[in-house]
Description:
The chain has 31 helices and 24 strands. It is an alpha+beta fold. The radius of gyration is 45 Å and the shape is elongated.
Amino acid sequence: xxxxxxxxxxxxxxxxxxxxxxxxxxxxxxxxxxxxxxxxxxxxxxxxxxxxxxxxxxxxxxxxxxxxxxxxxxxxxxxxxxxxxxxxxxxxxxxxxxxxxxxxxxxxxxxxxxxxxxxxxxxxxxxxxxxxxxxxxxxxxxxxxxxxxxxxxxxxxxxxxxxxxxxxxxxxxxxxxxxxxxxxxxxxxxxxxxxxxxxxxxxxxxxxxxxxxxxxxxxxxxxxxxxxxxxxxxxxxxxxxxxxxxxxxxxxxxxxxxxxxxxxxxxxxxxxxxxxxxxxxxxxxxxxxxxxxxxxxxxxxxxxxxxxxxxxxxxxxxxxxxxxxxxxxxxxxxxxxxxxxxxxxxxxxxxxxxxxxxxxxxxxxxxxxxxxxxxxxxxxxxxxxxxxxxxxxxxxxxxxxxxxxxxxxxxxxxxxxxxxxxxxxxxxxxxxxxxxxxxxxxxxxxxxxxxxxxxxxxxxxxxxxxxxxxxxxxxxxxxxxxxxxxxxxxxxxxxxxxxxxxxxxxxxxxxxxxxxxxxxxxxxxxxxxxxxxxxxxxxxxxxxxxxxxxxxxxxxxxxxxxxxxxxxxxxxxxxxxxxxxxxxxxxxxxxxxxxxxxxxxxxxxxxxxxxxxxxxxxxxxxxxxxxxxxxxxxxxxxxxxxxxxxxxxxxxxxxxxxxxxxxxxxxxxxxxxxxxxxxxxxxxxxxxxxxxxxxxxxxxxxxxxxxxxxxxxxxxxxxxxxxxxxxxxxxxxxxxxxxxxxxxxxxxxxxxxxxxxxxxxxxxxxxxxxxxxxxxxxxxxxxxxxxxxxxxxxxxxxxxxxxxxxxxxxxxxxxxxxxxxxxxxxxxxxxxxxxxxxxxxxxxxxxxxxxxxxxxxxxxxxxxxxxxxxx
Length: 871
């Protein structure tokens, strides 16, 4: 065997290895020489990959869905509900096809303000997540509906910004409490937005599950940095320890101590041994902070855009939103990405970031420039719509602006916006069905009602204003004194002021309008019963006697009107002769026997003769009080009265009624008027609903009015809506109203308003608002200020603070003080007023005219024979 063979066997692999190394060196040299080819190859591969990824991302983004979340006023979620919503969002972000790029696997929360609402809350994400996100942990307190595409018109000025997390990467954002709402700073930032100027503000938060491999790499880096920092701290401590020890050994005191100690010990001293500190073990939980666990860790991207058609407003809005996001800052904070160079800001509005920003904005891609890792607990304030603890601004779209002469609008007051602008606000007349105003005397509730009534009158609407104290008439007169209103207004004043008082006239039993007889009887009898406290249990006989007497008188009036002799009709004052004068009773019953039903005729034949004379006293006493007062005798004693509320409603009249006081007689008059109004309104059922003319009734001093007719006023608030008649009531104390009236008022009120007053008096009103604001806040209001809850487009707005309109300010252009005397004369003329003594004389002679008519109506009937029949 050749001895050189082993050497040849070892040399062959070595030569091959050397050849491989030589080849690698040649390749490296070639690559260094032709580096640009490698660069082009890498760039081409990257470009091709990015092109493919973008195409796939666009295709995936085209299959996105949108949901709109609308919270109820009482929406008040707990932390657990919000956290569960965050888990839903994180899970829904992965509901994409397997081929979808990671940048598309995100759910986007859009907070948008454009003037249509204070802050719209919208969620956009993968179409596969719609079913998961449609059912929220918030329950029925949040309405989820499918979001329609939003098309924005181009604005002249647009600013963009991207916010990234700055500070310690492992530190959390600030734990913001739920009360007040964490969204409140953002709502305040857009509260002065003006849609008319093209203002727009939108914030988009993309949520994406954190990538595992990136998170692991980040944890390794953080742990390495922590260990390195700990070693540096240990080395620094050791260095300082050696320096301290060296300084001590070089000191004179230490040398003397060593010298003394060495002599006493008989041995030489030496230098002390210094033990350097050992680096302590790094705690992963402390070093990694919020990145220690994978659970509920997400990556976020925050983009903001503000726009306006007015220069400077978009930039100012962005500054307000930036300040609002500072609320969430702590160890970590939201900071705007970019740099400031003098007056220039290099950020999302400038190259090269702008193109990337717009692509992510339009397609919903989540590609933050840095990780932006947060835990779901840190996003609590943004994972839900505004709650009941959020104070929402009142925008122009929430409450329309009042325009003079517009019959669709009803003036409510003056609202001052967050930017200090004041505007007249209104509600829509068609849905302002009933209003209630509460507050202390002089607080401005009557002034507000007058302003509303005057605006409605000038817009062509009809109304009735009932004021027991008459103060409202001289206050409103200068602003109503227009020639265009002169033929539409009537003043029914029972105060009989001045040396030659003039009074209008009204016959509750007047049948000229061909009313239904039993309705007239029922309305009049019920009016007496409500004032006098009669019912079927306490005064059945009084009710029966009065009803039977009224039935006869109404039948006589029907006959007189059919005969063309309305001036010969009976009045309320003929109840007494019908009950006490046998001759008049006999003639009347004979004349209308064919017009009465069998039951009524039988009562007069069988029951009436058995009644003792003192049974009539309870019925005759109120009639005697009415007759003793010359004003009420003149007002109610005319056969053909002028006052006709049904005709006034149908012809859009403006009727001002001043009963004259709040005594027993005045309450009876008020009750008669109220019951007649209820009857007249219900009689509109003979008119198709579309042809019923809207009419408004204003009742000042409800305590006085309801004392006369509680059940009648309550029925108004329950029934009038059907007939397009709307009631506005004002009172100082809601608690002093009778229970039926109070319950009907609160239940059906479209508008509920309160001025200042005692807390105990205001508490029933604020309780209807959930004590937001509370009685203490409302009680501290300035004069003419109100808190009002309104109904607009079918939903409640407020309570919102408004200033009641002052006539001298709001209607200054309508004031015609020089026309007041002529206008009042026209109002009295329309009401058919006449001198009080003339009407009183005519009322006293009315019985003779009725007797003459009845004698002609039944000439063949002898009083003696009839008296035997009915006595």
